[in-house]
Write a structure and sequence with these properties.
Distance between the termini of chain A: 6 Å
Shape of chain B: globular
Order of helices and strands of chain A: EEHHEHEHEEHEHHEHHHH
Number of helices of chain A: 11
Shape of chain A: globular
Largest sheet of chain B: 4 strands, antiparallel
GO molecular function (chain A): S-adenosylmethionine-dependent methyltransferase activity
Strand content of chain B: 15-25%
Structural class of chain B: alpha+beta
Oligomer: heterodimer
CATH architecture of chain B: Single Sheet
Region (SAM motif I) (chain A): 130-139
Distance between the termini of chain B: 24 Å
Family (chain A): Belongs to the class I-like SAM-binding methyltransferase superfamily. gTMT family.
Domain Methyltransferase type (chain A): 131-229
Strand order of the largest sheet of chain B: 1-2-3-4
Radius of gyration of chain A: 19 Å
Largest sheet of chain A: 8 strands, mixed
Largest interface: A-B, 33 and 32 residues
Strand content of chain A: 15-25%
Number of strands of chain A: 8
Radius of gyration of chain B: 15 Å
Helix content of chain B: 25-40%
Region (SAM motif II) (chain A): 193-201
C-alpha cells in the first residue's frame, strides 16, 4: 500500500525510463543548461499540479497566515530544536530513541545528504552566491555560507524570522556572508540568473502555486547553476487516478489547515514542471523512510515538561501545530 | 541591510524592466565593524555591480568609492587601501531605517530594523 505522505523523499530515477514511483516527496536537483539560450517556457499543463488559489485575496490571506504562524512559533521551535526548521535525515533502521543532539545532527545530515545527492561538493568553488528560498531562521544559509565561503541571501515571509536570522548571523560572525529579508518566494526580488545554487529546504509546501514557485526558482538560477528542492509531496497518482483517496485527502486537509499548507502535489508534478522549463539532469528520490523518525521525536520533545510549558506560553498556533503532529505520523504509517 | 545585499535586490513589480538598482532613502544608517577579509572581497569583486554600489554608498553618506569600477589590478594588488574602502562600503554600513525605491515606478519598499520588506501588493503582481 502506498504511503500518503512522504516528506523529503529521494527517488533515483533511472535515466530514460518512466517508472511508476512508489512514494511521493522528493529531493530534486536540477541543473540549468550552461548555454545562454533561454528557451521559451512551454506550458506545463499536465496532470494534477497543485490547485492555484481561487482568488488573489485568499493568496494574501495564506501569505499572512504563514507569516503569522512563523512569527508566533519560530521562537518555540528554536528553543527546543535549534535553528534548522526541517526534518532530520536518519538511517532507515535507526532507533527513534536518539538524544536531542542526535536529532540535531540528523538535521545537519539532511543538508549534507541533499548537497551530496545534487553532486555539490566542497571542492566546488563555483558556488559563490546562494539563495535560500523560505529560509526560516537561516539555519541552512549559515551552514552553506560557512561550508562554501559563499554569499547567501535568504527570504522569508516572517519579519520575526528575518530578524532572528540576521541576529544569529551576527552572533556567528557571518554577517558579511549571509543576510535575510522579507520577500515572497513567488516574486523573488532578484534579477534573473543571479545564483549558483538555489536552495529550497522544506518550504515548497507553503507555495499555493507550484508552477510559479518553480518558475521563480529557475529564473533566479544562473546558467549552469543548480536547484535543490527538498519538499513534502503526496504519493504519485496511479494511472487512471485523478485524485487522492477521500480518506487520504481528509488526512492531508487536517494537516494543511494547521500548518498553512495549500494544496499538495506529487513528485511527478514537480518533475514535469522542471522538464517543461528545460532543465537538465533532473533527479529525484524518495526519502520517506529516512525522515520517518522525525515526528515522533518532535512529539516527545513537546511532551517534556519544558516542551509543554513553552507550548502553553507560545500561543494557540503552536498548540494547534503540536496537536496536529500525530497526523503527520499517521500519514507516514499508511504505507508499507 | 548592508550594501552587499542591496547589490542583489531588485524591484519585481509586474511589467517593470528596469528594477535595478533600487535607490536608497536613508533615514537611519549605522556602522558595524566587521573583520577585514581581503580574500573574500577579491572573491566577490567580480560579482559586484559597481555603479550601483558606489551610488548606494553615497546615499548612505560614504563617498570614497570611485564611480567607475576599478581595474582588477587595483583589487589584486598587495596595497589594501582600496580594499579597505570597499570593505567599509560593502559590509560595514547598515541601513537600519529607510526605504528602497524602484527606479522605474518610484514604489518604496520599507526597511525596518535593518530588514527590507520586498513583498508586493496584490495589484503589483
Amino acid at each position: 500500500m502506498k504511503a500518503t505522505l512522504a516528506p523529503s523523499s529521494l527517488i533515483s530515477l533511472p535515466r530514460h525510463k518512466v517508472s511508476s514511483l512508489r512514494s511521493p516527496s522528493l529531493l530534486i536537483q536540477s541543473q540549468r543548461p550552461s548555454s545562454a539560450l533561454m528557451t521559451t517556457m512551454k506550458t506545463a499543463s499536465r496532470g494534477s499540479v497543485a490547485v492555484t488559489a481561487a482568488a488573489t485575496s485568499s493568496v494574501e490571506a495564506l501569505r499572512e497566515g504563514i507569516a503569522e504562524f512563523y512569527n508566533e512559533t519560530s521562537g518555540l521551535w528554536e528553543e527546543i530544536w535549534g535553528d534548522h526548521m526541517h526534518h532530520g535525515f536518519y538511517d532507515p533502521d535507526s532507533s527513534v530513541q536518539l538524544s536531542d543532539s542526535g536529532h540535531r545532527e540528523a538535521q545537519i545530515r539532511m543538508i549534507e545528504e541533499s548537497l551530496r545527492f545534487a553532486g555539490v561538493t566542497e571542492e566546488e568553488k563555483k558556488i559563490k552566491r546562494v539563495v535560500d528560498v523560505g529560509c526560516g531562521i537561516g539555519g541552512s544559509s549559515r551552514y552553506i555560507a560557512s561550508k562554501f565561503g559563499a554569499e547567501c541571501v535568504g527570504i522569508t515571509l516572517s519579519p520575526v524570522q528575518a530578524k532572528r536570522a540576521n541576529d544569529l548571523a551576527a552572533a556567528q560572525s557571518l554577517s558579511h556572508k549571509v543576510s535575510f529579508q522579507v520577500a515572497d518566494a513567488l516574486e523573488q526580488p532578484f534579477e534573473d540568473g543571479m545564483f549558483d545554487l538555489v536552495w529550497s529546504m522544506e518550504s515548497g509546501e507553503h507555495m499555493p502555486d507550484k508552477a510559479k514557485f518553480v518558475k521563480e526558482l529557475v529564473r533566479v538560477a544562473a546558467p549552469g547553476g543548480r536547484i535543490i528542492i527538498v519538499t513534502w509531496c503526496h504519493r504519485n497518482l496511479s494511472q487512471g487516478e485523478e485524485a487522492l483517496q477521500p480518506w487520504e485527502q481528509n488526512l492531508l486537509d487536517r494537516i494543511c489547515k494547521t500548518f498553512y499548507l495549500p494544496a499538495w502535489c506529487s513528485t511527478s508534478d514537480y518533475v514535469n514542471l522542471l522538464q517543461s522549463l528545460s532543465l537538465q539532469d533532473i533527479k529525484c528520490a524518495d526519502w520517506s523512510e529516512n525522515v520517518a523518525p522525525f515526528w515522533p521525536a518532535v512529539i516527545r520533545t513537546a511532551l517534556t515538561w519544558k516542551g509543554l510549558v513553552s507550548l502553553l506560553r507560545s500561543g494557540m498556533k503552536s498548540i494547534k501545530g503540536a496537536l496536529t503532529m500525530p497526523l503527520m505520523i499517521e500519514g507516514y504509517k499508511k504505507g508499507d | 541591510m548592508r550594501l552587499i545585499t542591496h547589490n542583489m535586490l531588485s524591484c519585481n513589480i509586474k511589467g517593470v524592466t528596469n528594477g535595478f538598482p533600487l535607490k536608497i532613502e536613508a533615514e537611519k544608517v549605522i556602522e558595524k565593524e566587521v573583520d577585514f577579509n581581503p580574500d573574500f572581497l577579491r572573491h566577490m569583486f567580480a560579482k559586484i555591480e559597481w555603479k550601483a554600489l558606489a551610488e548606494a554608498a553615497r546615499s548612505m553618506g560614504y563617498a570614497e568609492l570611485p564611480d567607475d569600477s576599478p581595474d582588477a589590478a587595483v583589487i589584486e594588488s598587495a596595497d589594501e587601501t582600496f580594499l579597505r574602502k570597499l570593505h567599509h562600503a560593502l559590509l560595514e554600513l547598515h541601513l537600519e531605517e529607510g526605504a528602497l525605491v524602484c527606479p522605474e515606478t518610484g514604489r518604496k519598499f520599507p526597511v525596518n530594523k535593518g530588514i527590507p520588506n520586498m513583498l508586493l501588493h496584490e495589484d503589483e503582481v
